[in-house]
Structure formats: C-alpha cells, structure tokens
Amino acid sequence: MINYDRLAAIFPYNTLPKVPVLRCPACHVPRNGQVPVPALDRCGFAIATIRCPECSLLYLHEHLTRDGYVRLYDGAYRSLVAALRDPAYDPSTAPPPEQCDLRDSYLAMIGPRLRAQAPRTLLDAGGGSGEMTARLAVLCEAPPAVTVLDPAPDVHMPGMTFVQGYLEDPIVGTFDCALCLETLDHVTDPIAALRHLRDAVPRGTLFVDVIDTDLHTRNKLRRLLKVDHPLNWTRKALTCALQRSGWTIRRSGFLRQRLVTRSRVAGLLRHVPDRVLMECE
Q: Where are the alpha helices (DSSP H) in 118-248?
C-alpha cells in the first residue's frame, strides 16, 4: 500500500510554486476558457489537466518552476520512484518485466537503423544511466561516441560523456544522431526541446517515442498522470510538435510492450502496442 504522507515528505509538490500553462505546449492553441479537470497523480499529488481540442495532447494546467524541477530531479525523483515500487522488487537483480520488453523493442526497431546509418556521434537526450544507448551502440560496426544529456544523470556506464542539463535549454555540440526515448513527456516546452535537438542534429536522425494516450481507457489514463510527466501525448500531438520544430517524419510505428493485466487466468499477459516511435530527419 502506498504511503502518500511519506511521498509528500520526500517532495512537497502541493506547496511549491507553479507556472500556469495558457496554450497547448504542442500546437499552441489557446485554452480559451477550458476548465481544468482535477485529479490525483500516482503520488497522491493534486493536479488538474487540460485536453487540447486540436491535437488531443493532455497536459497539466500548471507545472513546476525550473527551480521546482531542479529540486525534483536532483534530490527527490529516485526516492519517489523507489517508494512507489513493490517492496519485493529488487532493482539490482533485474528491471521490471515491462521494461525488459520495451528495451527489446528498442533493440529490434532502432538497432538495425543505427547500424545502417553508422553514426560517429550519438546524443541520448534524457538517457539517465545511458544503459539503453550502450546496448544500441554496440550493434553498430563502429560504435559511436555517446553523450548522455539528463537533468540528473546516473553516471556509471564507462566510455560515455555525461552532461547535466535540460532539453528546454540549448544543447552544446552537434551530433550525427539523437535518441529521445521515454523523455518527451517530462519536458515543459516540447517545441523548444525539439528545436534544440534539431540544432544539435543538423543533418542527422532523431528517434523519439511517446505513449499514445488516445489508445487508453479513462482508468488507464488516470494511472499515466504524474507531476513529473506534465505532458501526455497522442500520435497527432507528436506529429504536430515535430513538424513545428523543423523535423520531417520518415518512419513511425508502435513498440510492443508486455503488460500484466488482471484476469481470471493467472499470469495472463497482454501485448499493448501503445508506444509510438518516430524516426525523423
């Protein structure tokens, strides 16, 4: 059972200052009097959301200030995630089963494309520890030099350059290719983030993915709402944001991720293709 008082002690979200969001972060359509829908996120924090009538992006009607996000990622994020996990789960043994399946999907869909493109330099935007990128890089005949950009990088993978920073800020350097996996829902200004990636990869390829919330029922959508995920995407919203940021979509498809579902049949697994991956130039 989740101890919400403990989570509030780790990170006092409800008492921190917020910035109102007056336009859709993806297509910039004004809210025009839309009333935010109140909800509680997975940590029990009070939030409210707006669904864009144009691109269907679901976004928090207000988000933390930059100082608030620095406080979240520098000091509280990993403690919050640890407090939400099943006490029986041991992260030192193996990642959760759904993460294993997602990583296998990344290897299957991105690996051959990276090998064919043979980048010399690779940016992992929001890559955390860089573990997934390391697995992809070794698939190349000549593994690229990898730079991991993250608000709170988990520096333990050898042979990589780790940079502490935010996608909302300009990126130092240029690269042949960039990965932005499980990241775009964490940013507050996706157009700025994608434009900075465009500047950092002027003639290369971007691989970016999001969960398409159009495919989820209302109950599942509630479980996706999180203060650290101010944006909940749709395929249409991502397409709009990429085009507004100067990217051209070359390929897109859904990643297959194994999710355990409640069923009378113990151990039943259901494949839910809800995460869309786009390859852009």
A: 131-137, 190-200, 218-224, 235-244
Residue 80 Cα distances to 3, 10, 17, 26, 235, angstroms: 11, 7, 19, 28, 29
Q: Give the number of other Cβ atoms within 10 Å of residue 125's Cβ.
A: 28
- Dihedral sign for Cα atoms in the order 130, 99, 91, 151: positive
Q: Which two tokens stand for residue 142?
A: 């000549």
Determine contact, residues 10/83, Cβ cutoff 8 Å: yes
The whole-angstrom distance between residue 11's C-alpha and the CA centroid of its chain comes to 20
**Which residues, at least 6 apart from 225, have a Cβ–Cβ distance to it below 8 Å?**
39, 41, 42, 47, 49, 232
| Full DSSP string of 218-243 | HHHHHHH-BTTB-EE--HHHHHHHHH
Cα–Cα dist 78/2, whole Å: 16
Average pLDDT taken over every residue of the chain: 87
What's the pLDDT score for residue 257? 56
pTM score over 0.85: yes
User: What is the per-residue pLDDT across 94-145, written as a single tens digit (0 to 9) for each?
Assistant: 455 455 678 888 999 999 999 999 999 999 999 998 999 999 999 999 999 9
